[in-house]
Structure formats: C-alpha cells, structure tokens
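Design request, tokens follow.
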C-alpha cells in the first residue's frame, strides 16, 4: 500500500509543478493558435465572480465557454447550454483549453499564473475588494500576473493593481460580478432547509487560521480564535427581537462556528439547496463581518453593518489603507460589546446610519450597478478583447 507524501512535500511538489507550468505556458501561449472560445475558472468553484461571468458569457458570446471543474468541493450550478463545455482543471484537457482560448478569466490565479501574452488576455476577477493587504510572495504563481484586473471600487482596485504590478489603465472598476446575485432572492423553502425561518443577520468573518488541504499548507494570519461564545451578547439580543444569526464561515477557515442558537451554513450546504452565497447575502437584514471584503459589496444594499474585530492588536496581516478601521461604514465592535449602534440601526431598517454608508461608498469609489457582469463584458468589448452581443434585460433569476 503506497503512502501519500507528507503535507510539506506535497506543497513543494505542487509549487515546483506550478513553476514549470508558469514558464512553459507563457512561452507556448505566445505562439499557439487560439479558437473562438474563452476559459473561466473560479475557486471555490461556486465563487460568484466566476459563475456570473460564465453566465453572462453564455448569453452574449457566440463561441464556446469552457468551465474548469475543481477536483473536490461543491460544483457550480451553471445553466445548461450547448456552448458550455466543462473539463477538469487538473487535466490535459484543461491545459489544452487554456492554450486554445482567446481569453481567460480566473479568481485566484491559474496553472502557476503565467505571464500574459498579447495573444491571450488574462482577466483577473479576483475575489473581492477589501482592506486586507495583498502582498504577493516570491513563489510560483504568487504574483498572479494578468492583462486586466477587475474591481468593485476605485480605492481598493488601485491598491490591488499596485500590489499586482499592473498599470492603472488596466484596472476595470466595473463591479464584482458576484454582486448581481444580491438582487435574486432565494426561495423560502430553500432557506428553511438551511434552518433559516425568520429575518436574519449574516455573520461572515474572515479566516484567522486555514485548514490543511491537498496542495497547500495550513497557515495563520494571527488574531484571536473567534467563536460563537464571543458573539453571545449579539445572539441573545437578536433572538429577543425574533431575528436569527446565520454564520457563513470562510471556505478556508478551520473554525466553522457552530453552536446553540446559531445557524451555520457552508458552501456545500448552500450548493445542496441551490442558494448562491450572494443571494443569501441579499436576503439578510444586516451584516456582521471584520476584515473581509464582503462589506464592500454589501454597501450596494445600504443595510446595517457591524465590524466585530476583538483582535485588532494581534491580527498579523496588514490592512490597506492603514486607517481603514477608523472610517468603516458601521459600528466597530471589540470584545463582548453588545452591538448597540448596529441593533439600533436594525430597528429602523438601516435609516440611522445610511448617511455613513453613503459617505464610505463615495470615499472608496463604489461602482453602483445591478449588472456588474455585463458592465465588465462591455468594458472588455470596448477594449477589443471580445466580440459580444448586446446585453439582455436585467437578470432577476
């Protein structure tokens, strides 16, 4: 019986393979003939930026749309379409599709992140705009080169572009495509299957420590371990108002935050009932988060927000801008505080702090749109990247 390599050795093997791919694919892609097809890859596979771009491409692009399937985890729920081709990411077919595509879209880098060529534009959809500093390392694929970088805000987009060493003119402030899901309400029976049977506040903390997985090692960004006990004052006061607290852990987070009185939903559970994460977000009455990028997208909804950051002194990852915690669009909460201002805003459906959210939306340069996937495709068409049909009417399902 063969034994699997130790995690550290697996990570080294993966990094080495990525380095080879990075160099070879850059050279080959520069001369390899392309066909009328595009490639889309998201991680996790249900990541809304990738899903919504694929959905929009199927409506407006007349070539094939190749979707790369992740080896594990929930799979994306894409519409059946004769031009949609699904292939395994870790396969010769995936590499062949990469070489043959006239444009590539990804959220976390792909195949070691080779440098783009003039023949193959690479569109970095990324996975949100937020205050956690993007500090690429020196390993294979860490810089994540691209031709174009997508952002939902001018401020955070310019910071990302600088981190990825991309000229500002290659920044597309067209909104995060996943926000299109905010306006598509999930069905009540699907929410009930998740245990959501009343108005709810969504708690979406970023990870402090990650799980160990195939091809990557566990790592920590410092900060305190924050579980259900730390938000008990909020949980009790929401329950007294007939409001549920729903927790959506980060997919990499080692802590799932399950406990009495809390409804915890994972990517797998959302996929099982057919509810995209951002549709769940759009159904919420308010948001509790921290350093996560989700609050930037949530500005589009103009609803109450609180920022629970009891680990300001120990959280190791840098924030950008450095003073961001001083001008957040909601109450900053530490320790076992009772979330007074947040709850007061909830009581009046967000009218109390609407002025504050508006001020922050202007400060970050929020792209305000209900059709960000189409806005992105329109920008790429104007840049000569793709030939597309006109956008259809606003999607509501």
């Amino acid at each position: 019986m063969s034994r699997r390599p130790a995690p550290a050795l697996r990570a080294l093997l993966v990094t080495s393979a990525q380095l080879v791919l990075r160099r070879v694919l850059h050279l080959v892609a520069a001369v390899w003939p392309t066909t009328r097809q595009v490639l889309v890859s998201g991680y996790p596979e249900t990541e809304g930026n990738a899903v919504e771009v694929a959905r929009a491409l199927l409506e407006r692009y007349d070539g094939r749309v190749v979707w790369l399937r992740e080896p594990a985890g929930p799979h994306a729920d894409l519409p059946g379409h004769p031009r949609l081709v699904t292939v395994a990411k870790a396969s010769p077919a995936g590499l062949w599709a990469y070489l043959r595509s006239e444009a590539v879209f990804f959220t976390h880098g792909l195949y070691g992140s080779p440098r783009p060529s003039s023949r193959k534009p690479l569109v970095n959809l990324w996975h949100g705009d937020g205050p956690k500093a993007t500090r690429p390392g020196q390993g294979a694929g860490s810089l994540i080169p691209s031709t174009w970088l997508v952002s939902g805000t001018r401020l955070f987009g310019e910071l990302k572009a600088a981190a990825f060493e991309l000229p500002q003119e290659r920044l597309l402030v067209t909104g995060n495509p996943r926000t299109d899901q905010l306006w598509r309400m999930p069905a009540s029976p699907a929410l009930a299957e998740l245990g959501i049977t009343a108005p709810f506040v969504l708690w979406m903390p970023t990870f402090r420590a990650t799980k160990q997985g195939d091809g990557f090692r566990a790592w920590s960004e410092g900060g305190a371990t924050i579980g259900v006990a730390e938000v008990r004052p909020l949980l009790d006061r929401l329950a007294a108002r007939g409001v549920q607290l729903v927790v959506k852990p980060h997919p990499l987070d080692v802590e799932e935050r399950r406990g009495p009185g809390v409804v915890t939903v994972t990517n797998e559970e959302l996929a099982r009932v057919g509810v995209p994460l951002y549709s769940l977000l759009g159904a919420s009455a308010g948001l509790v988060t921290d350093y996560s990028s989700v609050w930037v997208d949530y500005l589009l909804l103009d609803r109450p927000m609180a920022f629970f950051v009891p680990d300001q002194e120990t959280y190791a990852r840098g924030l950008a801008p450095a003073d961001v915690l001083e001008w957040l669009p909601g109450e900053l909460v530490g320790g076992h505080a009772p979330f007074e201002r947040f709850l007061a805003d909830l009581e009046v459906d967000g009218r109390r702090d609407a002025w504050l959210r508006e001020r922050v939306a202007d400060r970050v340069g929020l792209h305000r749109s209900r059709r960000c996937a189409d806005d992105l495709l329109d920008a790429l068409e104007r840049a000569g990247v793709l030939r597309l049909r006109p956008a259809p009417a606003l999607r509501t399902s």
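Comment from the thread starter after seeing the answer: thanks! The longest strand covers residues 64-69.
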